[in-house]
TrEMBL record:
Pfam families found in the cross-reference section: Cellulase
Glycoside hydrolase family domain: residues covered: 62-271
Family: Belongs to the glycosyl hydrolase 5 (cellulase A) family.
Name assigned to this protein: Glycoside hydrolase family 5 domain-containing protein
Keyword annotations from UniProtKB, A to Z: Glycosidase, Hydrolase, Signal
GO MF annotation list: hydrolase activity, hydrolyzing O-glycosyl compounds
Keyword Signal: yes
Annotated signal sequence range: 1-21
Biological process annotations from GO: polysaccharide catabolic process
Amino acid sequence: MGNFTTSSILLLFLFSSVVTSLPLSTNSRWIVDDRGRRVKLACVNWASHMEPVLAEGLSKQPMDTIAKRIVSMGFNCVRFTWPLYLITNDSLASLTVRQSFQQLGLLESIAGIQANNPSIIDVSLIKAYQAVVSSLGKNNVMVILDNHISKPGWCCSNLDDNGFFGDKYFDPDLWITGLTRMATLFNGVTNVVGMSLRNEPRGPKQNINDWYKYMPKGAEAVHSANPNVLVILSGLSFDRDLSFLKNQQLKLTFSGKLVFEAHWYGFSDGQTT
């Protein structure tokens, strides 16, 4: 992949560097800032795709405290997950945080959120998601919006019906609608520097032809709605396989924004540590 001129590989464990000029773009294999200086993203994953559809930990600590802790640990970026239905299912998106946790019987967590983050307890889930992004921005933390799954819940397995285009919970047209809405919602939010189109494509339906059919459509939809963000694409087999790109480069109408994301796990190559 060294010959690609409009894409970069996103490695979420890279050491951080100070970013002084946004938005980000790509230059050959590098991610660069608005002044052309190389930027190394050091991103921590913050889950907001589980059943309550709220960033985890907000019943334990104020979001500003968590954001400051992220910075103190040397990270400059959060990969902030979201389920597709948060932005495509109006009934879910309009639920308040309190109502969401009440439906799940998580009464102790409600009390914790009320104590630590009272400003979000009675706002809608999508407004609470925006509030976390805003808090991260106030602490100079960049954000990558990661569409982790469609139906809120644990991720991931080959048989969770969320893995690939055509699965029970992965309708391609609804996915493109959701990406467009999320990109539009955060257009102008400067610390949102990228959108990861889908976490870890996988499962029995995965195939290269459909990847090339739908991933460009998602990429074009995001770029059209929000041309400032990096457009981040994952490969097949839990995002461990991008080898097919050697034989067929992705064709898009835009340049300077495409990033490929690869995942590596110790257990995925036989290592146990």
